[in-house]
Amino acid sequence: MRKLISSIFIIALSLLLPLFHSLGAEHRVSVPVDNSPYQGPENAPIRIIKFLDYQ
Fold first, then answer.
1. Shortest CA distance to 36 belongs to which of 46, 48, 26, 25?
2. How far apart, in whole angstroms, are the C-alpha atoms of residue 16 and residue 19?
3. Phi-psi bin for 39: left (phi > 0), alpha (psi -120 to 50), beta?
4. What is the pLDDT of residues 1-55, one digit of tens each?
5. Non-local CB neighbours of 49 within 8 Å, separated by 6+ positions
6. What are phi and psi of 15, to 5 degrees?
7. Which bin fits 40, alpha (ψ -120 to 50), beta or left (φ > 0)?
8. pTM greater than 0.90 (yes/no)
9. CA separation for the pair 43, 41 (Å, rounded)
10. CA distance 46 to 44
11. Distance separating alpha carbons of residues 38 and 10, to the nearest angstrom
């Protein structure tokens, strides 16, 4: 069941991705990460920031 849901999600995402890409110009935001915990090398070319809401 889990594989089926994953497969459906991947197919839906692959169909919707071009739509999201065509919505507008690229928007970048600078987020300060000075004293934040991290994994991986400090000088990584790409940083993925995960926002969590614990409510």
1. 48
2. 5
3. beta
4. 777 788 887 887 777 777 666 566 666 777 787 888 888 888 888 888 877 777 7
5. 31, 33
6. -80, -35
7. left
8. no
9. 5
10. 6
11. 28
Structure tokens at 12: 């839906």
Tokens coding 46: 């790409």
Instruction: Provide the residue type at 7 as one letter.
Output: S
Distance CA 26, CA 34 (A): 25
Which one-letter amino acid corresponds to residue 19? L
Only one residue has tokens 């497969």, namely 7
Cα(19)–Cα(3) distance, rounded to whole angstroms?
A: 25
